[in-house]
Design a protein that fits this description.
The chain has helices at about 1-20, 40-50, 55-75, 75-90, 100-110, 120-130. With about 140 residues, it is an all-alpha fold. The chain folds into two domains: about 1-75, no CATH class; about 80-130, no CATH class. Helix 1 (about 1-20) packs across helix 3 (about 55-75) and helix 4 crosses helix 5. The two termini are about 30 Å apart.
Length: about 140
């Protein structure tokens, strides 16, 4: 379930950094992740939490624990660098599907990230500037 929380947390961190805003646990809540592409991820998390029992307090405690672990993951410098590498690879890759082996190579730092923007037309460059990940 932590991996379901990491994605939207990474998006929230990226946007905060891009906009030169503060990113910390006091400002980000689980429900805010809905604003960062996390709606379907949160649905799955809540569904999985039901397996921990029907006690809502117990579920909320577990969710807080998982959210804290996901936040620590995103805040780890090494993990954040790997997230940025993978995001750049996905953004700059012209394939619809990226194989598991490719993703692992990127996360391990063994892949070459090609910047397709250099060879793109004006519309691609405009899109890239608006949505850049590592620039």
């Amino acid at each position: 379930m932590i991996n379901l929380l990491v994605g939207p947390l990474a998006e929230a961190k990226h946007i905060a950094l891009r906009d030169d805003e503060c990113f910390n646990k006091n400002l980000i809540t689980v429900n805010v992740l809905n604003n960062y592409g996390g709606s379907s991820d949160l649905e799955k998390v809540y569904e999985y939490l039901e397996y921990f029992g029907k006690d809502v307090n117990q579920q909320e405690e577990k969710l807080a624990e998982l959210f804290n672990q996901a936040f620590q993951f995103v805040e780890s410098r090494g993990h954040w660098q790997a997230i940025e590498r993978l995001a750049a690879y996905i953004f700059n890759n012209m394939k619809n599907i990226i194989r598991f082996e490719e993703a692992i190579a990127v996360l391990d730092g063994n892949a070459i990230i090609v910047d397709h923007e250099k060879h793109a037309g004006p519309e691609k460059k405009k899109h890239s500037v608006q949505n850049s990940i590592l620039k």
